[in-house]
Amino acid sequence: MRGLVLLCLFGTVLGHKWDESFKSFEWLGSDEEPQESDPKPDSLCQEDRSSCECCQMLKQIHRVEELFNRSMAALQHNLKIAQSALKKIRAQRSAFSVVLGDAYCIGPNSNDKIVVYTTILVGDGYDMSTGVFTAPLTGLYSLAVTVYTITERMWQSLTSCATLSVNNVPVASVRDLGKGDNQDSASIAVVLNLKAGDRVFVLLPSHCMLCSDQNTFTGFLLYATD
Ligand SMILES: *[C@@H]1O[C@H](CO)[C@@H](O)[C@H](O)[C@H]1NC(C)=O
């Protein structure tokens, strides 16, 4: 009988399908009385103890396989969710950084004017012909502006200033009046909720000046919210 158990398990180990192994076991049990056989493990156990042990083992293996299949299915489901989240995050990247040219001054003007930065360091979304960054996605953005002015002549009146605007609405302003020094600088750093299509730019107010490549305008999407 021990031989039977081994044979039975051997079949399973060899990669026979569970159903086939189980059927062949049932067939052994029901051979003598094909119509009236009772496959209940209890009565079977009374008739043939070793066959019963084999049957219990196969049932156990079946249970483990079911559990394994369920865990595997759950893992595959979660992997799919993670992969699509990653894909979405990758599609939602946005960053730009622009700078004014070296030895380049703009202003003072009699009217407010959009600062058109001359060099793109990183990214797109910034229009070099208009000086406007258009938000590609709705979300939370980090935006930073640094202004700087220098003059060789100490007595020249200097004002370094700028206004960060979204859709023509001022969001933050800096202003450094030059009195007695020949360098002025200031910075803006904000985090803003922007909608896709919002137009962000740096405005140079009238009578203000910006000089050199220490003037930068930087923005990036922290995370999308749509
Ligand atoms: C486990 O999954 C395999 C592959 O899909 C399948 O052939 C087998 O019948 C499953 N086993 C159980 C116990 O559900």
UniProtKB/TrEMBL annotation:
<keyword id="KW-0732">Signal</keyword>
<dbReference type="Pfam" id="PF00386">
    <property type="entry name" value="C1q"/>
</dbReference>
<dbReference type="InterPro" id="IPR001073">
    <property type="entry name" value="C1q_dom"/>
</dbReference>
<keyword id="KW-0964">Secreted</keyword>
<dbReference type="GO" id="GO:0099558">
    <property type="term" value="P:maintenance of synapse structure"/>
</dbReference>
<protein>
    <recommendedName>
        <fullName>C1q domain-containing protein</fullName>
    </recommendedName>
</protein>
<feature type="signal peptide">
    <location>
        <begin position="1"/>
        <end position="15"/>
    </location>
</feature>
<dbReference type="GO" id="GO:0045202">
    <property type="term" value="C:synapse"/>
</dbReference>
<dbReference type="InterPro" id="IPR008983">
    <property type="entry name" value="Tumour_necrosis_fac-like_dom"/>
</dbReference>
<feature type="domain" description="C1q">
    <location>
        <begin position="89"/>
        <end position="226"/>
    </location>
</feature>
<dbReference type="InterPro" id="IPR050822">
    <property type="entry name" value="Cerebellin_Synaptic_Org"/>
</dbReference>
<dbReference type="GO" id="GO:0005576">
    <property type="term" value="C:extracellular region"/>
</dbReference>
